[in-house]
Fold these 2 entries.
Entry 1:
Amino acid sequence: MKRDSVSAMTWRRFQRSKLALGALAYVVVVALIALIAPMITVDPNAVDIASRLRPPDHTHRLGTDDLGRDVLARVIHGARVSLTVGLTATLISLLIGSFLGAIAGYYGGAADWLVSRLIEIVLCFPFLLLVLGIVALFRPSFITIMIALGLTSWTTEARFVRGEFLRIRDMEFAQAARASGARDARIIFRHLLPNAIAPVLVSASFGVASAILIESALSFLGMGVPPPTPTWGNILYSAEQHLEYAWWLAVFPGVAIFLTVAAFNIIGDRVRDALDPRSES
Amino acid sequence: MTSYVVRRLLYAVLTFIGITIAVFALVHAVPGDPITFYIGAHGAHNLSQPTLEAIRHEYHLDEPLVTQYLYWLRGVLRLDFGTSVVDHRYVTTRILEKLPNSVELNLIAFLVAAAIGVPIGLWSATRSGRPIERASAVLFFLLYSLPSFWVALLLMELFSVKLGLLPTFGMTSDEYLDLSAGQKLIDHARHLVLPVITLSYAQIAIFARFSKSALTEVIRQDYITTARAKGVAPRGVLWRHAFRNALIPLITLLGLTIPTLLSVGVITEQIFQWDGIGRLYFVSILTRDYPTVLGLTVVTAVVTLFASLLADILYAMADPRVRFEETAP
Amino acid sequence: MDGVKRFVVLLLLAVVACTNERPLPTVSTSEDLKKPQEGGTVVRRLQGDIATLNPVMAQSVNDRQVDYYLHTPMVHFDADLSAIPGLAEKWEISSDGRLYTSDGSNVTAGDVLFTLKKIIDPQTEAPQIAGAFDQLDLRTTRVVDPHTIVVGFKDGISPQLAHFNDLLVIPEHVYARGDFKIDFTSRVVGCGPYRLVRRVAGKEILLERRPEYWGPRPNLQRVLFKVIADDITAWNAMKRGEIDETIISTDTWLAEGRRPELQKFIDFRRFYTLNYNYIAWNNRDPVLGDKRLRRALAMCIDLKSIIENVYHGTARAMNGPFTPDQWAYNPDVPVIEYNPQEALRTLRSLGWLDTNKDGLLDKGGKPLKLEMLITAGSIASNPFAQLFQAELKKIGIELDVVPLDFATLIQRVLAGNYQCAYLSWNLDPDPDPFALFDSSQFPPRGQNFVFYSNPEADRLLEEGRREFDQTKRKKTYQQLHALLADDQPYTWTLQVSSKWAINKRIRDVKESKGWGLFQWFPGELGWWIPIDQRTHDVPLRRR
């Protein structure tokens, strides 16, 4: 099973969906905008209370927030933080999930048993308590939020990888590797993992979306990324106080979250279809 | 099968101890305790040290963590979860007061989501790739992408404030006690509408996806092809074989949904003033009400472990090919 | 202190009966819609469920709000915060201020003693009220006759009288039986103007007027408390007429208060209550220990602009531990003017210069970086902290704003493990700030968590609480006010007025200088609803 051909085929299949291509293009554009954010906007934290809660006009294209900060600048800078939080949290959960899932699936027995118990423990663990704990023990910042998200969301990935490992660990190529005397670590990470990672990547694309949503929910509970750092979630939350008369505060970050989360979901869905050798379309 | 269940129950006990130790350690590792919360909530005058000492002593806060945990575990074995540090009522009473409300709301939301999401998912599986199916898929992604507190407030603004069709908050109206049984049902149902929509709109999307992919998967299985080859009518195949098997992942989904309810529920509960355990959990964490936090952890853990066990058993019963094997939850 | 003197309060109880009996229904016959009419139900909002109906165990302002309907305190406050008779018809304070005496019937002096004993018993675990009677001396406290009690204290301090407002007497024959902490969370026997009909935990509390109430008869027949935790939900419920009153945010007040369709039925009120916001500076911090530096930082707060732009004039600048409504307030103390240039000059004179040209002031190779703790999710502290942060950045100081959940924040503050924190106080009616600034009151003993220590302040604080003559006390406190304003152990910032929305069907809603709508006499007892607007009167049935 050669990886190049698989990814090339996946890409060919992926391309067939205009919607998925559009979603991908959108994510790329947003990521680029986020990267060059400091170059294209004013300071997102520059307060000017004399012009607070101004509706959109030509100085502030998307209006100002409750401290007179430029909403456009905050939404663009918010993209940096929200995307970083989403991607990094997902990366953390990918790393933990694949590692534990691989160990459990490859060795089975006691390792599998332990990982399964660990998954159960994490599933029952009160998420809000964990966030509060991490934030209180370290410093509240978007990094702590990322870590908290990553530490709690790896169970899905672990289950997927474990399942895949159970399926492929006794396939010919794995046995061949073992016969050639490769060490376990090499077999797991060089031979098996690349073949087991596909469904995990799909779940990861949904993970990014859900991390962005969870961050906004945490903002509502006062446990999100601390000020003045803008995130889509905390801009949207600040709008909650002014919903009746400052529509621009709610609409723009809301649309940003909405489009981005949808884009990641569409990409994930399409990748999964494309990966499936039996899918017809 | 009995031995399998016994073994799983044994594991569940171990997991349970693991969870409680982890939560116990974390809740104590977070800075502040019930005493600091009392002091923080106190006005700008002096405090009574003997009283604070007495509270520390009653809740064993003056003893080492391990001892505290053992005290707690001993209580749990006797089904005594202690009393709340906030109002001194039994933790069991406090939880049982709110648990039915949470179960009701979440169960209805789950059923609504399933009742709408599953048929749509099955329908789209049979029409995979057609424009109408594509369009509905996109619609569901969009639904799923909306932050829940935002949706909740917009729903309230529209249906309660602007249109005046539904109540703003609470579980029943003021005059509830004077209504006839039928009116009570209607009154309560009206209060349920917005919280249920808030909790289920994203789940509908999840259900639709899950059931679509499950059915797609099943359709491609050999035995369906065999059934087709045997001349069973396509529709019959779909319902007799495919549908039943497509339900399996939904069982798994049910097992996975339960533990997230506590975290997800808090926002809906707060906005619609639905008196459930999600908000109790959140507030108890904030006030460092250790006994209540641990009591709620136990409830979640027991329900989750039970749901996971149940899912595995159902899984095995629904799919004869699955033997009773250890599976990850 | 001199241990020979006796602090006495002689409390004379009014003739009062405790009850949990059912009243007879009353029918209002008055047709005149201008004059107060009896009857009707008001629907009030509780910001959170109460912890208990046992007044000794009361935890939060929600508990208190309900308790004052069900019980009468020994001493009431009027709208101007003066102590007036409550359950105690009159009282005498011994010359050394250690004994108070009182008198009563049905509610007996024995009940008062019982309540006091419960309050100070550590096993009761009543942390919120026990401190108020910390100095109670059971050896000198005695029941003279059923109507008279002498309450003795180990120490004679003038703020003690105000704490008798916290003393809601419970009858011994009821509360002595059963588990004091658990059995009275949802049942109550009191001597207040209302009695409990039902409590549905997490949802509502329904009270009903007691016809045999001994005091002036309240107008409203029933009071229904609805628990609504979320402010936006409460405001939406208010707009729909589902509740009759709620506190609202300044921005809601400013924006929605202008809408004519809402003005038609909602009375938008604002008034000052006993509270203020402040920056607590850790006086033990090597950098912040210098009052010149603290004053320089205070010069970077543009209070005028904040009041103008954020609060549209609905807040006022604070300059010390007393609000302008308190008699202890010193009108001659100036507010520190906004002057970043002057602040920069001061900082330079203290050796803070930008030597490495990185935009931050530094001294001895260390940049001037401060960390300010705020309560996570707080609507008041968040904007202030960010404005302050922006101002300090302009003159080269980095302020790191750290939002923490309340218990974590308090834990760090009490442990002295912080540099500064943005907090607020709800004050007692007596202005005594001893627990906040006396050098004997460092945590865990008291609440001097800024670790402020100044012998002159200690002397004034002591003098102020020993003096029973208000004119003399006022002088002392005015000096203290000036001293604290100069020392800046806190930087006082704003007193933001409370904003309320009240349904116009509720008439004669008056406010006090103390707690606004709550806990003063006659306060809520004077409210009434015209007979044609009784929209929330449903037939009453019990569970």
Entry 2:
Amino acid sequence: MEEYPEELRTPPVTLISLVGCPELHALISSHLHSEQPPINTLALPDFSKISVIFSDKSSDGKAASASDPSSPTPGILKRDWLLKHRTKVPAVLAALFNSEQISGDPAQWIQVCTDLENLRNVIRPKNIKLVVVVVVPATFFASSNDDLISEDRMAALRKRAELDAKHIVFFNSGDELQLKESLNKLGSTFAELATTYYREEGRRIKTRVEKKNFSSIELNIRNCFKVAVHAEFRRDWVEALRFYEDAYHLLRQMVSTSTRLPVIQRLVEIKIVAEQLHFKISTLLLHGGKIADAIAWFRKHNASYRNLVGPPGVVFMHWEWMSRQFLVFAELLETSSKAIQSISGPASNTAEKLTEWEFQPAYYYQLAANYLKEKRNALELAQQSEEAAGGIDGSAESVAPSVYVGQFSRLLEQENVLAMQPLTDEEYTRYSIAEGKRFQDSFEIIALLKKSHESFSGIKAKRMGSLCAFQMAKEYYTVADFTNAKQLLDDVASLYRSEGWVTLLWEALGYVRECARRAGMVKEFVEYSLEMAALPVSSDTSVQSFDSKDCGPAGPPSLAQRENIHKEVFSLVSGEVGSVSIGDNLDLQTACNGPLHLEIDLVSPLRVVLLASVAFHEQIIKPGVPALITVSLLSQLPMNVDIDQLELQFNQSECNFIIMNSQRPASTDGRQGRRVERAPSLSLVTHKWLRLTYEVQSELSGKLECIYVVAKMRSLLTICCRAESPASMDDLPLWRFEDRVQTFPTKDPALAFSGQKAAQVEEADPQVDLVLGATGPALVEECFLVPVTVTSKGHSVFSGELKVNLVDVKGGGLFSPREVEPLSSDSSHHVQLLGVSSTDTEDDPQVASSKIMKIQQSFGLVSVPFLKDGESWSCKLEIKWNRPKPIMLFVSLGYFPDVNELSSQKVHVHKSLQIEGKTGIVISHQFMLPFHQYPLLLSKQSPSLPMNEASVLVVSTKNCSEVPLELQSMSIDMDDDHERLYTLQHGGGGAEDMLGISHLMPGAEFRKVFTIVPEVESSSLVLGSVALRWRRKSETQEACVLTKYKLPDVNIELPPLVVRQECPPYAILGDPFAYVLRIKNQTKLLQEVKFSLGDAQSFVLAGSHTDSTFILPKSEHVVSYKIVPLCSGMQQLPRVTVTSVRYSAAFQPSVAASTVFVFPSKPHFQIAAAADAENKELEPVATE
Amino acid sequence: MIVCVAVVGHQNNPLYIQSFTEADDALKLHHIVHCSLDVVDERVNNPKKSGPTLNETFLGLLYPTENYKVYGYLTNTKVKFILVTTDLDVRDVDVRNFFRRFHAAYVDAVSNPFHVPGKKITSRTFAERVSNIVKSFGLSST
């Protein structure tokens, strides 16, 4: 676009001319330039210059008009016409006069008149509008300009200038306001007159067009162009567009009709004019925001001229022209789309056939580059034929553009006069070819493609972008810039690789391979060659026909070509000098003397060349035991490849081994101390797994992983291939789309799906027994002993360490050492590891002293002394349960079987045992009152005991465990800080608390009765706690366990009344007996007591049914009835109710207490009767 | 005249590409087919721009090169069909019709129990059928 002249590229701007009063010109012109729309100013300092500037124009114009209309028009558009109208022919001429000149003396006035006359003579033939500006002096402050110049003078001035009053403008620069007003006035007057001028001019030419008043089609086009330009001057874009289009269409018709010039030049002229017209049209459309229209127009333009190639010798000119069309349009589109942000999408009606790319400048840049390439090719041909025809003569140098757009002529210099001579087509062709040589098209092409590439990449069209990059790379390749070419091609190839476009990849690799070859990069060359050789190029080449010329240096993709490349690269790496057809580049051959090392990892494109899969047959292998490992190699190279030697590298380097090809002479360098295997053949066949199975043996426990498989081929090539597990192996990226039989890296398909390149090496088997000897559940409170025995069975134990861990089975509170906080009390540990006692300490005191012990609540670390083979050592873990809870006991023994700890590996033995913690003994208690004695306790608190009365405390113990227990003693002990404030009596006689040994079988219960007589009145009397000593019943005398049971505090109070019921233990039918209630008043008050007696069917009784009586303080009242039983058996005595009025308390003996057995006749048991009397006071409650 | 047809898998890998020209420019056609995938992506990712054709399999004219027109078709399994023709005046109806028949042929080819989905189509029957469809392009409607 830059090569177009300025006047064509920018919209035309109105031009006016100022003459006279040069001091004001700068001010006025800058104001006009800032107007909207702007006006350009042609400033002439004084009137004498007028004729000079306009004279040649007028004569030129006369000459043009004077030319014979019948003679053929020599051209379509004049080269400088547009420039003339933009810079030299003003629309308005403004004559500036000072007011003194007009109103001054006659001499001045005559001067003014003369100037005006001259001006009018000059501008009349061109219809230029005249404005007279009267400059009012700055010192003049008049309310009206009329005062300045007399009416007569003004009239005379108007007459002289033949102007309306409004075209005589007063310019007053007195103050700022007036100046601004004046400038605005000037601006609007100029704009109005300019529009009028351009309209009139346009109309004048338009009538010519409409009347078809012209001699040739060229003139018609020219007139249309002029009308359009004039319309543009007055910003009538619609009309401008219409006439440009008319001109364009007329021009297109000319192609077949015109005979004016020689063929080639005629076409050139038409195309260049069409280019200008098209440019104008496109600019107008784009500036109007009609992008879709502009694109459609461009398409039409392209379609109508694309086939106008011209004679064969000058085809390149056509391509150059085409390229320029695309480039210019791309630039236009780019600038306009920057201005108009929202590109109207292809949804608009006119653009129904437009596609996305046509809105992108990148698309046009790319095509411009393509045409430029065509041009270059055509130009090369033209040059060749030209040279063959006899070289280029120097005459081309004097060829220059002629007066008309798109025409060239020879410039002849004769006696200092320049003359133009028309050219013949041959001369013109020579000239163009010579011109064409001056440009370096490749760089132009690269620049265009780069723009396109960047632009396409910007809109995420990566494939278009990479196509551009590819074309760029080809250009770089042709200009032998291999670094740039290679860089671009690498990117391009990676896209094709990832999408599996093999043919395109083949082409790209072919170029980059040649780049590497030419640049002497041996490693790259080998890599690209190998990749190409391994590409899945379809073997049936007959289906696809590829032009070998188009396919780049690699030739068409075919199996044969792959084989050629394969042979070439392998003869290169085998160092066979002379057998390689490297061509003229000897650098590669010489550079290839050293060894070549290629690495193939999981993402390398060279995986197709060599794929190594390694699978251990077992996931877990034993140390020192040979395990099977299968190495599978796959190559897609078209021909068989023999591997000289194969090395497997593991993470444990002592496992590395080498597989030698026994068909090859063995070289013994660099493998001292390595294991060497021999394979009968190490030949890789295309697309066939080479499977090798060997044994591998590791002494170290841990992970054993195969990392690399290094294949050595020929003398120079080493391929280091990262090992892959068959289970997680990806398909080969390009071959995966090929329709072919799936093969497995291992013979066993199961191994192919699950095989791993790494295996776990186990520890050596421990040859030591660890026995945890606990039996049965542990009981709460007891110190539970778990015997641990370490017995050596083949291994000596060095530096043995026993780790003990207690873990909650339910996972609630893990007894890990971390959780042991110093502040937490023992209660937080329901189970504690108390200690470890060794049984062998007496035998070997030295060992015992050296052993380290670390005991925490749930974790213990015990060192085990040195044990020889066959020896054993044991200890006992002391664990105490505070709560019933199952726990898991983990004991692990770690030791070295060898005295040298560094060389040997630690061996571990783990044992675990779940131990239940159970409650062994449950203690409960019960308070009871003495037989048939009922104190009135006023407080509601319970338990309450009457003071100074004997109360019974029954303590019972139950064996909840599953083992028999021995009870040692049971007593009620006071706590240290309490005093015993009651009298305690043991049932069963005065022996203090020793029971002797009492056996308690599982589930059995043991009770002991205590009598308590409180001596003080207290709301909470401390009774102390029951202390029970017990142990498991066993042969070994274990230590007694003391279980404490806290008795509750009791309320002691003095009862005001005590009722004692007396009645015989049995009765005899018909035999009367006494039923007595003794009511004792313990207060110092007189107590009123009411009592009543209910009837009973089985008895006849004597005594009052209801009565009330007063009981004296500290005395006892006896209510006595005589009762005769009438029925035998268990009989309910008559219910008696005693009511204390003062305390509103009633007493009625319970049904059980008022039941008596009636014998039918007197039984005979004398002994019982004796015992009966004795045991009245302390009868064991248990028999009740 | 149709110069090239292609089936492109959903990873944008070519499954079947066949050119029908005498001019030995198969590689150029491969480039054209490959580049047209950009437009397919664009159309699929910005369905708004392509107007009301929301569930339309026929993607229409993808892009005009100087000498070719490229049409696209997207199946519901995201397999793309690309057609390159040298006819500059092509009726949409013909192209739609072509793609419909081509789709049917493709479905038959991949329904073959011996065909592994995602692999290249190597069926000879398919190739023959395609070449028949290509030959009859534009004839049926005239």
